[in-house]
Design goal:
Elements: H1 4-7, E1 11-15, H2 20-31, E2 35-40, H3 43-52, E3 58-61, H4 67-77, E4 84-87, H5 102-127, E5 133-138, H6 151-170, E6 176-182, H7 193-202, H8 209-219, E7 226-228, H9 233-242, H10 244-252, H11 255-262
Helix pairs in contact: 2-8, 5-6, 7-11, 9-10
Length: 265
């Protein structure tokens, strides 16, 4: 099914719009006929992105990890007719437990979990008034498979996955379709040099933002649910749920390599 069928004529708020996946989503949504409300921290980057997209789109610079910025964003959105929210903004962190600062922990949880939850809570009432609304939370395979070096990041995405699942069921009798989409590793600036080097050493498959954006928008044509991208990662999600001991053994073989890249120098 063509993604334009679901997004044509819709007004969509997209967070993290200037990042790798965010920019790919923005282009494909705009090409599908959506009107975008773009948000990210950098105003110049938002201006550049909006100018590069087909159609007419609006933008609002905000750091959604900061409560005042988030409230200002919600106030700005309230003046628009909103049909959908895509919580794409996120930050990554490769590091071992016991080596994370309190600031790092608070910032990552604020961006990856607190902000999308707060935006959902603030915008669901207005989305309820639309006849065919969407709410899409972008997670990660690591939210379903706990890996060394990614405990904090995985915990934030696991929380978002469970929140999305509960929200989908809570809104199942409404006009809002709730999706949770979990890509595997992406080839974007989101990844640190250490993460890129570790993925290469482990032979981890990495997808292009454009391909993932296309898959994601196609999934949003179908039944609201949680979707996992990439093979064999989708299989590992099931194995981890049913036979975690089996996954434990496989991950243990990678532990020394992960520690080499995730540990503090």
């Amino acid at each position: 099914m063509n993604p334009s069928n679901r997004f044509t004529g819709k007004t969509i708020l997209l967070t993290g719009a200037t990042g790798g996946l965010g920019e790919a989503l923005a282009h494909q949504l705009a090409e599908s006929g959506a009107t975008l409300l773009l948000t990210a921290r950098s105003a110049p980057a938002l201006v550049q992105l909006a100018a590069a997209l087909p159609g007419s789109h609006r933008h609002f610079a905000a750091d959604i990890a900061i409560a005042d910025d988030r409230e200002a964003l919600v106030s700005w959105v309230s003046d628009q007719t909103l049909d959908g929210l895509i919580n794409n903004a996120g930050v990554g962190q490769l590091g071992l437990v016991g080596e994370q600062t309190s600031i790092t922990i608070e910032q990552l949880l604020a961006v990856n979990l607190t902000a999308p939850v707060q935006l959902c809570e603030a915008l669901v009432p207005s989305l309820r008034r639309r006849p065919d609304a969407l709410l899409v939370n972008i997670g990660s395979i690591l939210g379903s498979i706990g890996l060394p070096g990614s405990a904090l990041y995985g915990a934030s995405k696991a929380g978002l996955q469970r929140y999305s699942e509960a929200l989908r069921r809570e809104l199942s009798d409404s006009s809002i379709a709730v999706y949770y989409c979990a890509p595997r590793a992406l080839a974007t600036a989101f990844n640190s040099d250490q993460t890129v080097a570790m993925n290469r050493a482990l032979g981890t498959a990495v997808d292009s933002p454009r391909d993932v954006a296309e898959q994601l928008l196609q999934r949003c044509q179908g039944q609201p649910r949680s979707y996992f991208f990439g093979w064999p990662e989708k299989l590992l999600v099931r194995l981890n749920a049913l036979l975690p001991g089996l996954v434990d053994g496989g991950v243990k073989k990678q532990l020394a390599t992960i520690r080499r890249f995730a540990g503090q120098p």
